[in-house]
Amino acid sequence: MQWWYWILVGIALIIMELMIPAFFVLWFGLGALITGVLVLIVPVLPLPAQIFIWALSSAVMTVLWFRLFPRIPSKTRIGTADGDIIGEIGLLTGDVSQFQRGSVRFQRPILGSEEWLCIADMDIAAGSRVKIQSAEGSFLKITRI
After folding, report:
1. Most CB atoms within 10 A, among 67, 70, 110, 119?
2. Domains observed in the chain
3. What is the pLDDT of residues 36-59, one digit of tens each?
4. pTM for the structure as a whole
């Protein structure tokens, strides 16, 4: 296979990544580009060796990507103006105590999420109605109504 075939396939796969934003096809495109450059340098590589180089480089880049950069949560968390959420009322879905985190669910999303991890200064049983006292990091501090 000619070196420029690999370059075209690589470019096509990278363009496909722009249409399918999954950060997965990109690594196969880069693997094809690497294979194209190697075939340009060593033009006598047989096709099975070229395919092996492409598969190996693509797999290595994919594994490295997912190991070095863990998944970013898709839900928005605390980070913007939390003053708008103070006083919002929700339902406690998991027991909370002074040294144990719980979870609270809201009817409408609060800062992008319907369910949040929460902390409290007192023991509150699941099923209780609670209101937001403050936002502390990625947790909501709550109090019983």
Report:
1. 110
2. 3-68 (no CATH), 89-144 (2.40.50.140)
3. 999 999 999 999 999 999 999 999
4. 0.50
